[in-house]
Specification:
By secondary structure, the chain is of the alpha+beta class. The chain has three domains: about 1-45, no CATH class; about 50-80; about 85-225, no CATH class. It has nine helices and four strands. It has a four-stranded mixed beta sheet, with no helix packed on it. Helix 6 (about 155-175) packs across helix 7. The longest helix has 24 residues, at about 55-75.
Length: about 230
């Protein structure tokens, strides 16, 4: 499609100079350059820019909406400046906190917040079923699919569960840029339906579960139990 615009010439000194030219400026094979003498003014013809289809417009709008939603989600999680990769840091922080107490943290059981909470829920159901004195070995023999924890088989399952809940709070806090306090641990337990009557006592007995600078926390795996 050709858009036409008329531009009048400034007055000239003689009649011959009053002649005006018609120019087409696209110069392609379909509209070759041409000059025609008129008596009105210079008519400059330019092809219209290519039209954007409705489908393309809708696609660009959808993409922009998805980008805004993604940005909003990251801001809500406190991860806007750290990027998606920060979410995977959860396991690294979780494992680091567990290992500081000499406790194993297999990735297959604790690789994400979801899997860590699922494992903690399994542990809690077994502790409630068999009592606070049940050991990891006894749970493994009961067919709970926790064989990867057999390395600390003599450890109290209740204490190990307390360490897991504390480590979830610590790891989540570090991913979001904050530390973990006793209140954070209890809030984490509450929000994931992991709160139990003996948890506060366990955290008071073993503050190294959520506090990094606690002397003797490397021995927790041998001493940890809940009374």
């Amino acid at each position: 499609m050709i858009t036409t615009r008329i531009v009048p010439h400034a007055p000239r000194g003689n009649a011959a100079d009053d002649a005006l030219r018609l120019r087409s400026t696209n110069g392609d094979a379909e509209h070759p350059k041409r000059v025609t003498t008129l008596s009105v003014g210079t008519i400059i013809c330019r092809p219209d820019p290519p039209a954007i289809s409705d489908a393309s417009y809708r696609q660009s709008g959808i993409a922009a909406h998805q980008t805004r939603c993604k940005s909003h989600s990251l801001c809500h999680l406190g991860l806007a400046n750290t990027g998606i990769a920060s979410v995977s840091d959860f396991y690294q922080y979780f494992k680091e906190n567990m290992e500081s107490m000499g406790l194993p943290a297999p990735q297959s059981l604790f690789g994400s917040v979801t899997s860590a909470v699922a494992t903690a829920t399994t542990l809690l159901s077994q502790v409630e079923k068999f009592g606070k004195k049940v050991t990891i070995n006894e749970l493994v023999r009961a067919g709970t699919r926790l064989e990867q924890l057999a390395i600390v088989g003599t450890c109290s399952a209740a204490f190990y569960l307390g360490a897991v809940i504390g480590s979830i709070a610590v790891a989540t806090g570090r991913v979001l840029g904050n530390g973990a306090t006793l209140s954070d641990v209890l809030l984490t337990a509450q929000s994931h339906s992991l709160r139990t009557d003996w948890l506060v006592h366990c955290l008071h007995m073993y503050p190294g579960i959520y506090q990094a600078a606690t002397p003797g926390k490397t021995l927790y795996r041998f001493l940890g139990h809940v009374v």
